[in-house]
Amino acid sequence: MKIVISEFVEGARQAEGLTVIIDVFRAFSVGCYAIDSGASKLIATGESDKAFELKKMYSQAVLVGESDERKIKGFDLGNSPTEILKANLNGKIVIHTTTAGTRGLINAEKADTVITGSLVNASAVSRYIRMLNPDQVTLVAMGYRAKESAEEDLICAAYIESLLNDKNEDFKERIGNLRFTSGKRFFIKENIGFSPPTDFFLCTMTDKFSFVMRAVRRFDGNVDLERIDV
Hints:
It is built from nine helices and ten strands. By secondary structure, it is an alpha/beta fold. The protein has a single domain (2-224), classed as putative 2-phosphosulfolactate phosphatase (Alpha-Beta Complex), CATH 3.90.1560. Strands 5-4-6-3-10-9 form a six-stranded mixed β-sheet, with helices on both faces. Strand 9 and strand 10 form a beta hairpin. Helix 1 (8-14) packs parallel to helix 5 and helix 6 (122-132) packs across helix 7. The chain starts with a strand and ends with a strand. The model has no long low-confidence stretch (mean pLDDT 97).
């Protein structure tokens, strides 16, 4: 099994084989919490305008997402697992758009199979990959705003790679130290309204969930995410 690690939207565009689009802070942590909270469907889109169009098709849907980390005007919830846990999503369709993660999903058109990845389900991701046993795996770390390398995404990619290679590496210290590096923004007073400290802890609860979310491209170019328990 060949494992390739790449970054950003261009990395998603070039990704081949079984592709994991990784966004730890916060898109695909949010996705896992939404599905675990009872959402019946999760639709990912790359632009807020397309999210509003989808809302016209699914009138009872919940709009979730961010632009520059903040909740988009007219959306129901921000891209925050803390907000997800406070909301009632049982049976609801969630329409999700973010600066980095969902754009990666939309652009991964060359890949054979696409799933999302985050620390909260990294082991499930590795189990799913082993089950399919593809010739190539591409791990795409989407980065901060899809422009800057994000330590949390690269750690997640390294963790998944280590599991696939049967390495007994301990990532606890590196993940904990994110609080003082790329995750320190969650502890800045000015950010609490849209990026609370609880988001950091919820996004770094490694292997909390035992399912993956597989992307299925829709007729309209957006992506349905379906839960697969592994």
